[in-house]
Fold this sequence. Notes:
Two copies of one chain form a homodimer.
Chain A: H1 3-11, E1 18-27, E2 32-41, E3 44-49, E4 59-61, E5 66-69, E6 71-76, H2 85-92, E7 97-102, H3 105-111, H4 113-123, E8 129-134, H5 152-156, E9 164-170, H6 173-177, H7 181-192, E10 196-199, H8 206-214, E11 219-220, H9 226-234, E12 238-242, H10 250-253, E13 265-268, H11 274-279, H12 283-292, H13 297-302, H14 306-312, E14 328-331, E15 343-346, E16 349-353, E17 356-357, E18 392-398, E19 405-411, E20 414-415, E21 418-419, E22 427-433, E23 442-448, E24 456-459, E25 468-472, H15 475-488, E26 491-496, E27 499-505, H16 517-533, H17 542-547, E28 557-560, E29 563-566, E30 571-573
Parallel strand pairs in A: 1-4, 1-5, 6-7, 7-8, 8-9, 9-10, 11-12, 12-13, 18-23
Antiparallel strand pairs in A: 1-2, 2-3, 5-14, 14-15, 15-16, 16-17, 18-19, 20-21, 22-23, 22-25, 24-25, 24-26, 26-27, 28-29, 29-30
Helix pairs in contact in A: 3-4
Amino acid sequence: MNRARLIAVARGDEPADLVLENAHVVNVFTGEVERADVTLAEGHIAGVGDHADAPAHKRVDLRGAFLAPAYIDAHIHLESTMLLPAEFARAVLPHGSACAVCDPHEIANVMGIEGIKLLMQLAEDVPFDFFFTLSSCVPATHMETSGASLSAADLETLIANPRIAAMAEMMNFPGVFMRFPEVLEKLEVAHRHGKLVDGHAPMLRGRDLNAYIAGGISSDHESTTIGEAQEKLARGMWIFIREGSTEKNLEALLPVVNPTTVARCCLVTDDRHPGELHELGHLNYNVHKAIGLGLDPVTAIRLATLNPASYFGLKCRGAIAPGYIADMQVLSDLGDGLLKPLAVYKDGMLAAKDGALALNITRPWPPDSALRTVNFPRCFNAGDFALNGSPHVRVIKVIPGQIVTGSFSANMPVVEGKLQSDVSQDILKLAVVERYTGKMGRSIGFVNGFGLKRGAIASSVAHDSHNLIAVGVDDSDLEIAFNRLAEMQGGLVAVKDGAVLAEVPLPVAGLMSLCSAMEVSRAVLRLNAVAHVELGCALGSPFMSLSFLALPVIPELKLTDKGLVDVAKFGFVPLDAGA
Amino acid sequence: MNRARLIAVARGDEPADLVLENAHVVNVFTGEVERADVTLAEGHIAGVGDHADAPAHKRVDLRGAFLAPAYIDAHIHLESTMLLPAEFARAVLPHGSACAVCDPHEIANVMGIEGIKLLMQLAEDVPFDFFFTLSSCVPATHMETSGASLSAADLETLIANPRIAAMAEMMNFPGVFMRFPEVLEKLEVAHRHGKLVDGHAPMLRGRDLNAYIAGGISSDHESTTIGEAQEKLARGMWIFIREGSTEKNLEALLPVVNPTTVARCCLVTDDRHPGELHELGHLNYNVHKAIGLGLDPVTAIRLATLNPASYFGLKCRGAIAPGYIADMQVLSDLGDGLLKPLAVYKDGMLAAKDGALALNITRPWPPDSALRTVNFPRCFNAGDFALNGSPHVRVIKVIPGQIVTGSFSANMPVVEGKLQSDVSQDILKLAVVERYTGKMGRSIGFVNGFGLKRGAIASSVAHDSHNLIAVGVDDSDLEIAFNRLAEMQGGLVAVKDGAVLAEVPLPVAGLMSLCSAMEVSRAVLRLNAVAHVELGCALGSPFMSLSFLALPVIPELKLTDKGLVDVAKFGFVPLDAGA
Lengths: 579, 579
């Protein structure tokens, strides 16, 4: 950046690249809306004020429209959008976003440090500012086969990178307050390098919360009640108010924002599925909703602009002021206009206009290693999913819209000595296959709640280790589903009567697509429709529910590639309910 | 720090070093006062909340007293206190301060980078947290002989030091908006290393202000009117509200603090003379005054604790929360109790009690180079101050309590061809002697307003180059005054009838004492009394007024060792008013 030229333009001594005239500038410093002209040069904001007569190469008359800083998402998992960074940028720039701090937790579980580096590399030349946090809890547990394990020493190799904004959410909160040495080592890696550590402490209160924060953890996005958020804030945490596709806390937590606390709260998405990203938007949706819930519009915008920049110490971002990066959005009003920015500027360039991308964004191609992460030396056959044993089994009970499960026991039908799915009880076979070592290790259990009448659905998105998981009525459709996932090197698939009816290929680490948000959104929509109409599935989001059934840190009963896990006991239990 | 132990103490698993029970904790995050116990370990705060039953090696019952974070001064020139870091700490710890960000501008003008390093080194082991900013404008001008000149390359050698919190106030504001290359190079040194640049932009508004801020300058402490402060804040600057010994802006600027802007305002002192430091206090005086002017007490405390820490990114400081450095003060109430903390804790140790220091603080001895900065190869004699020329001369007019001067012309008496002081007109000889090169270069002029009836006063504190300056009725007392300053290697002195009546030795760079705040305070008091009573001086603070008469960047007429400066013309003018 030519600083001398920026200063000269601010003073009106040299022509600006662009003057945005007659704006109502949303000033997040004063909380006011200010009638002003804004001059731009060198990708930055030069002057704000009365600059109507400033020399300029180009002038745009905003005719009184609002000009707000572009959004910064302080916490999102890119993988939840199933999009590569370039496609994510294409999707969210028209919604007014220009920067995101991403926790690459999912790809880190599949590919380790190399996965994090891959995402960083794919984000590098995109006209959108990606920062990353360094995934702190890979793998989640040792009760599953994981694609990677990140030690403190591994994390230290990347922590000083200027694109690493913090150590990522420390999900192993008992590991902090119980002082597991390997957990404390990771904290010290961050502290030693002067980096923040993001938190993840659902329902943690009192002394355990004090102990967790004493570990040097400075934010939390897991509060679900106002009392919890207030306590965390009072103990020094920044509160990230989350409204994503899975977890929705905005309404419950908004009262934590008051004149004293406002500087330490942010609006974040955490996750946003491709369909919602495309249809509803990104942070503009959250800001609009916060205003609908009664928050002052300038304050709501501040929570998604200046505040995330302040928290992470991202300099010269999140406001419209001299020297700031020229990431801005033009809005017709501060109500429904937030949902449809008239124009978005990134680094002073017109990036989107009336909801359509106005920049050419090329999508870098991932290296072959990222496209080859499902390792099966042979195809599956139906016999691989046959199950012997006692017909009286433990059953995982899916609870619609939640990631916790229930459990109960049931008697399964037996054919030729083999346990079968039972559509009449809605208890179906659930299979998890390990994808990393080539040993094809697997375990098979039973799940209630999917409501499939026939066929199978399968996914390579299965938190946190992302082994392959499928639920199905018969073994031959399970066979076809797993083999198709292997062929696609990951994705989502619905199978009926021996044929693949619909699929969403996710060949990048088995987590992300090579397509656009609209393409992925449509494919997911079609897949869900097939699951509902053709297979008779009763769940609203069957693939979302499926993706959490292998996560052995969320109660109550889960299935990993190593077996059935009773989360309360933090250990394996037999399928046989009598054992 | 043993983080595992801190966490264990926070949880109550291991005994705390200390529990402060039954406190009313001033919570700067929530704005509330909270009934809580606070556990301490490893010099840090472990837990805050209900910890009455926590195991501990020691317990102190605060019986409902208030517990507030200790103060952080975001902007002070240590040299204005005339105290070395250890003595400063001894003076301000009892007033509730534990951290200061110091601009070593004065010693940098005398000794350059070595002077800054010297202060940093003298501060190193003191139980008080000194941070420094890197003096950006040394020397102020080239119209005087300076002890040092700091280039961008010089500053780059120190900028990455973790004790350097920012580039110091960029006083050369025209140099920024007029894009002087050497000024922009200094800004880039800071930006390249991710450090902030503090501002100094008195009365700067509009486009020039925009241009200055576009240089990447993020704070200002020079506003004197509310409109000026509001404009700077709206353009992105943090507002340091100054209330020092010289400049008092608190009352005028306090209205800039409102629920939206409160997170970006700080209370600072800028300068605090030793007497006021000792008698009135440090930031506790400013906080108390702000409350008296109507600010909510918790907010007032926040402006001098959490906010300065936030601005500089000083982690884990400025609040009472788990993991924070245990710098705290016990207060009987949040009114007059602020002026007299009952106890002060630094790093969890009792540092002061009832206004008295409770820690043993040793004072490191400065190296000989710092004690030998006045370089005269011979003594002065009265003839050195004789003045020929036209009796119609330009006269500097001192304005009481201000650092700007007026000017007028007058006719001086002539004796044996030499111009003389004239007590009847209150126009006295003013002499500035260059102290660095050994050449003893000097210039002589006339000043009105001191009111001396006899004798002379002299000082080695003379902004910004700190040459020696004296005002006197006759040449022989000027001779004695300068020779005494040389003997003392700097200081303040009052001379009458050939004898030194009072003095304050400032042997460290000619700026700072080797004594305590109380000793310096008493010596200055005595010196001023002598100037008033024995010499008949009419000015309230004659040495303060004297110290600004050689500063050629403040209007209107000044005298440097190189001659008389018309500041408006930014150039020299002859003493002869007719020339």
